[in-house]
Amino acid sequence: MDLSAQAPGPLVSAIERRTVKFLGYRPDIDGLRAVAVLSVILYHAGVGVLSGGFVGVDIFFVISGYLISTIIFQDLEAGRFSLGRFYERRIRRIQPALIAMVLVTLLVCAIVFVPLDFKLLAQSVGATVLFSSNVYFYLKSGYFDPLAETKPLLHTWSLAVEDLFFPLLLMLLWRHARRHVATVLIALTVVSFAFSIWQARVASDAAFYLPFDRVWELLIGALLAMGIVPPARSAALRKALGILGLVLMAVAIFLFAPHDIFPGERALVPCMGAALLIYAGQGGPVGANALLAARPMMFIGKISYSMYLWHWPLIVVLQYVLFRKLNGLEILAYLVVVHMLAWASWKWVEQPWRDANRLVLSRRQVFGYTFGVTAVGVALAVSVHATGGMPGRFAPDVRHYAAAALDTNPLRPACDSPSRKRLDAGDVCTIGTSSKPASFAFIGDSFGDALVPGITQAAHDAGKSGIVLTHSGCFPLLGVVQTDNPSCVGIMEANLNLLNKHPEISDVVLVARWTSALLGSRYGQFEQSGWFIKDSQTKQVSYQENRYVFERGMLRTLEALKGRNVVVLAYLPEQRFDIPRALTLSQLFGWPREVALPVFEHQRRQAELRAAFARIEQASPVMLRVLDVGASMCDGKDCAVLRNGVVLYADDNHLSRSGAIALSDVWRKALVQNEGSK
């Protein structure tokens, strides 16, 4: 995003040939930038009252569209625009501070990141220097995904949205359709906005990261720069518009939440707020714009680009080593450090590179250095990826712990989440003794996928064969819809249709993150709330409704499985920490001192689930066994994370491949009817 403070002088609209007067410097825009960057930083720091602080990026996009378009239109009107000149200025503005941040982040993370996380960081470095990190993070995970908190360069997605679009589009329109520039830009704004509304509902990650869903935000700023709306001449009107703009931004910052559909139409609220403030300040700062032009706000606005760059990797590293979010005093200290880093970056990195007189480089040299940095970044990404995250940074005993993060189910690519087409065709994985026909079905979500290696071993030991019907992220509850994952709709129905075609499959084993379905929250290193489920009887989603929906869904599932033996694997301990990381850092630095989950915390997390399953067993229409996995993993003190030197978990709640195999005696109880108990 362009956070430049300079807005050039008079701009002549080539569309209406009307002169629109702009101040050479807009201090209120610096203040608007301060509002945007502070909302993002405070939101990421965990200041709960700013539940919609992420909209600061949308405010930035409007500012950026306005300033970039102002510069481009001025140069086009004066006949001096060139892509080379534009990109040279952009490189001087964006890249030096970005590269400094990336280098420091790499060096720090090389000390504390386990190989898997360091490999992913290196990949994101390659994407960042290629200005394609928005696509990379779209393919990897959602912005609000809990795992996003381990990605130090996640925030660079916003830098990749705008740089190629504006200069090329505006130059082509100016040269070939000058009389229709406004019409084309308005049409693009409307189409992009409508597309964003649609895609936010069907593919929310794509809507958040990909350019066309965000273009309308930039174009709002561009349309303002063109002077399509005549300036407001009344000071009273400008004051009223400025106040309205502040109110709209406050509504978004304080009332929006990560689980809202976004961007879509909700993003219009902060964007229109920013646009109104930019528009109201065109005749000079009055009212709300005067407040934004205050010196403290101007200062924060000037260093806002560096603040944005440094705030996220700093908080990611802090939370990575603390294994928790920051508390009150820590947040205050964090904010002080962010301001110090931002000021240093602005003064000693940004300013020298932006001033061509202080750092004299030809355009060819600027582009040459850029090419070199890009090549080095890509080479680094490839080399670190090829080594699996440079595990040689650690001693052998530490590497053993860290390697568990990569010790996951090798059958996942082939077996997990088969498509509806595959399910309808019966094209699913078979595990166990290949000489025997399938007699059991293993149905679950990602918890189930993680257990497949152990279930496979247990089936071999028991002389049995079975089919795998796991779908990561989808609770195996018939008739239940997950509000955060519409792709799960119909999956359990398809699983049951497949079973109906195979009456010889007499046994069914069910496993899932049952506590999340019941309580609506994720426990552990990446704790998260708002996991709501609903069914045809739901009138309003809520945490209490989750409890009703869970029991109805489970009973509905059991009814559909009449005539079969059903075993539910439950009470799998969910750990507080990412276990490979915690064991690694505990070995390196002595922190955390106690890695394993205390048993009283495990029992507290599972208490409501135990009560729910007790009611379900009483009402079950089939012979049901609920197997207590935690009973085999927990003693009187804690729930084990190691067994005979084997790291049992690959993260904070999914078992590792080796862990699942080490517990194969537990899974054998689910496959053999005369073993195990409720």
Automatic annotation (TrEMBL):
<dbReference type="Pfam" id="PF19040">
    <property type="entry name" value="SGNH"/>
</dbReference>
<dbReference type="InterPro" id="IPR050879">
    <property type="entry name" value="Acyltransferase_3"/>
</dbReference>
<dbReference type="Pfam" id="PF01757">
    <property type="entry name" value="Acyl_transf_3"/>
</dbReference>
<dbReference type="GO" id="GO:0016020">
    <property type="term" value="C:membrane"/>
</dbReference>
<keyword id="KW-0812">Transmembrane</keyword>
<dbReference type="InterPro" id="IPR043968">
    <property type="entry name" value="SGNH"/>
</dbReference>
<dbReference type="InterPro" id="IPR002656">
    <property type="entry name" value="Acyl_transf_3_dom"/>
</dbReference>
<dbReference type="GO" id="GO:0009103">
    <property type="term" value="P:lipopolysaccharide biosynthetic process"/>
</dbReference>
<feature type="transmembrane region" description="Helical">
    <location>
        <begin position="59"/>
        <end position="76"/>
    </location>
</feature>
<dbReference type="GO" id="GO:0016747">
    <property type="term" value="F:acyltransferase activity, transferring groups other than amino-acyl groups"/>
</dbReference>
<keyword id="KW-0472">Membrane</keyword>
<keyword id="KW-1133">Transmembrane helix</keyword>
<feature type="transmembrane region" description="Helical">
    <location>
        <begin position="206"/>
        <end position="229"/>
    </location>
</feature>
<feature type="transmembrane region" description="Helical">
    <location>
        <begin position="366"/>
        <end position="386"/>
    </location>
</feature>
<feature type="transmembrane region" description="Helical">
    <location>
        <begin position="97"/>
        <end position="116"/>
    </location>
</feature>
<feature type="transmembrane region" description="Helical">
    <location>
        <begin position="181"/>
        <end position="200"/>
    </location>
</feature>
<protein>
    <recommendedName>
        <fullName>Acyltransferase</fullName>
    </recommendedName>
</protein>
<feature type="transmembrane region" description="Helical">
    <location>
        <begin position="241"/>
        <end position="261"/>
    </location>
</feature>
<feature type="transmembrane region" description="Helical">
    <location>
        <begin position="267"/>
        <end position="293"/>
    </location>
</feature>
<feature type="domain" description="Acyltransferase 3">
    <location>
        <begin position="28"/>
        <end position="344"/>
    </location>
</feature>
<feature type="domain" description="SGNH">
    <location>
        <begin position="415"/>
        <end position="668"/>
    </location>
</feature>
<feature type="transmembrane region" description="Helical">
    <location>
        <begin position="305"/>
        <end position="323"/>
    </location>
</feature>
<feature type="transmembrane region" description="Helical">
    <location>
        <begin position="329"/>
        <end position="346"/>
    </location>
</feature>
<feature type="transmembrane region" description="Helical">
    <location>
        <begin position="154"/>
        <end position="174"/>
    </location>
</feature>
